[in-house]
Amino acid sequence: MKFLIAGLGSIGRRHLRNLVALGEQDIVLYRTGKSTLPDQELAQYSTEDTLEGALAHHPDAVIVSNPTALHLDIAIPAAKAGCHLLLEKPISHSLERVKELKRAVEENRIQVLIGYQFRFHPVLRVIKKYINEGKFGKVIQARAHWGEYLPDWHPWEDYVDTYAARKDLGGGVVLTLSHPIDYLNWFFGEAERVWGWFAKKGDWDLAVEDTAEITILHNSDVISSVHLDYLQRPVKHDLSISGTKGSVYWSNMDGRAEFIEAESGSKTPIYLPEGFERNDLFLAEIEHFKEVIRGRAHPICTLEDGIHDLQIALTVLEHPGLEDFRPLIPLS
């Protein structure tokens, strides 16, 4: 297969290295020259500085890994050209052109995988299996907490200039750290209503929110909540779920979880596979994408999933601090 990578920041380069590791060599790069990373590892690949020139190579698939606010500038023309899409999360910073993307995808019968790689996490997949099997009984609460420290996130560049800190590029914690929104929807079903609050709590002068609290009412009648921030040191990303029959705590810092049965109190550890590394999530994602392109698998995170995640984020950003749950912003 021939792949086009649009956007060669840290995630685009990770996808490039993983494609090569999985035996793919026919790779074209579309670059605008704005990456702050060195160019040496890119020198051997065909490179274009216009999207028209890049799509003229007739790639089978396009990996959209440029800043969030520019995703649809790539995804829509690529879909119209008949290219399958691995579209990094979130799919955009607004709903403005999402219907156009949907039409292009449907008319050209292409496959779309949204890049929420935590759906490939081995321990979260076990937790998802436990939920499906009813091991928790009736879920009482689910809480995800993700605190990052933005200045340490991309140490090779000034954090104020990163896409995560720029409103014009679709930054801010609600969009940039939206992984828990996605995996909670994956666990408990689509959101029916959402409440959210956000603020600038840090000492720095960012153009985006650096802290947020979100509560989601899912169609399974489960209520989950999410805390997000750019301020926490050391970083913390964890999840707790409590039910009438059992509970679980997972920490992304060591990757493992522990399930506790309510009646007996017995504890079942859930370990990562031996030798697991963070990049294994992205390798699994690329392998899955290749199977989706070949028609051997259905996308684990569909375009509709990505749209729903974006609707939740935008509902929070456009209606913060309301007293009652809000219906999601419609796709108009």
Please tell me about this protein's structure.
The protein is α/β, with parallel strands linked by helices and 332 residues long. It folds into two domains: 3-110, 3-Layer(aba) Sandwich (Rossmann fold), CATH 3.40.50.720; 118-273 and 301-327, Dihydrodipicolinate Reductase, domain 2 (2-Layer Sandwich), CATH 3.30.360. It contains ten helices and 15 strands. It has helices spanning 10-21, 51-55, 71-80, 98-108, 122-133, 150-153, 173-176, 179-188, 279-293, 303-318; strands spanning 3-6, 27-30, 46-48, 61-64, 84-88, 112-115, 139-149, 191-199, 211-218, 223-229, 231-243, 246-251, 257-261, 267-270, 326-327. The strands form two sheets. The chain has a nine-stranded mixed beta sheet with strand order 14-13-12-11-7-10-9-8-15. It has a six-stranded parallel beta sheet with strand order 3-2-1-4-5-6, sandwiched between helices. Helix 3 links the parallel strand 4 (61-64) and strand 5. Helix 3 packs parallel to helix 4. The radius of gyration is 20 Å and the shape is globular. The model has no long low-confidence stretch (mean pLDDT 95).
Regions with little confidence, pLDDT below 50 for 5+ residues: none
Tell me the number of strands.
Answer: 15
Order of helices and strands: EHEEHEHEHEHEHHHEEEEEEEHHE
CATH architecture of the largest domain: 2-Layer Sandwich
Based on CA atoms alone, the radius of gyration comes out at: 20 Å
Which structural class fits the helix and strand makeup?
alpha/beta
The level of helicity is 25-40%
CATH class of the largest domain: Alpha Beta
Under CATH, the topology of the largest domain can be stated as Dihydrodipicolinate Reductase, domain 2
Q: Count helical runs.
A: 10
Sheet with most strands: strand arrangement: 14-13-12-11-7-10-9-8-15
| Main beta-sheet annotation | 9 strands, mixed
What's the CATH H-level superfamily name of the largest domain? Dihydrodipicolinate Reductase, domain 2
The count of domains is 2
Shape: globular
